[in-house]
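testing teh design pipeline on a random one, pls ignore if ur not involved
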């Protein structure tokens, strides 16, 4: 009986943490210009296959320019589990770089 007292709050916290990343991603989708939205959604689908979307945001804070973003996307595309096709590298790079330049203008 006592284990139930801590299991439910832990599960709710875990669920909330997962929703926060999705909510942030969705909020950026709403801010994106119409031309970027399809690519942003593609990036979400491909990136979330292997890791959390928060991990994508953290990487974009480290990337200095579009070339860094492209290098990361190309690196991920080389991993079979990513599902990133060669023709998807540029659209994903463009969407992620759009976000990076909004958050970290340099």
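output:
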């Amino acid at each position: 009986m006592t284990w139930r007292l801590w299991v439910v709050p832990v599960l709710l916290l875990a669920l909330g943490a997962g929703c926060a990343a999705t909510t942030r991603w969705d909020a950026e989708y709403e801010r994106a210009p119409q031309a970027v939205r399809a690519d942003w959604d593609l990036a979400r689908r491909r990136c979330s296959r292997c890791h959390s979307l928060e991990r994508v945001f953290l990487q974009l804070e480290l990337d200095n320019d579009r070339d860094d973003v492209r290098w990361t996307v190309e690196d991920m595309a080389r991993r079979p589990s990513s599902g990133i096709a060669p023709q998807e590298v540029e659209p994903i790079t463009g969407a992620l770089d759009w976000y990076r330049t909004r958050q970290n203008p340099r």
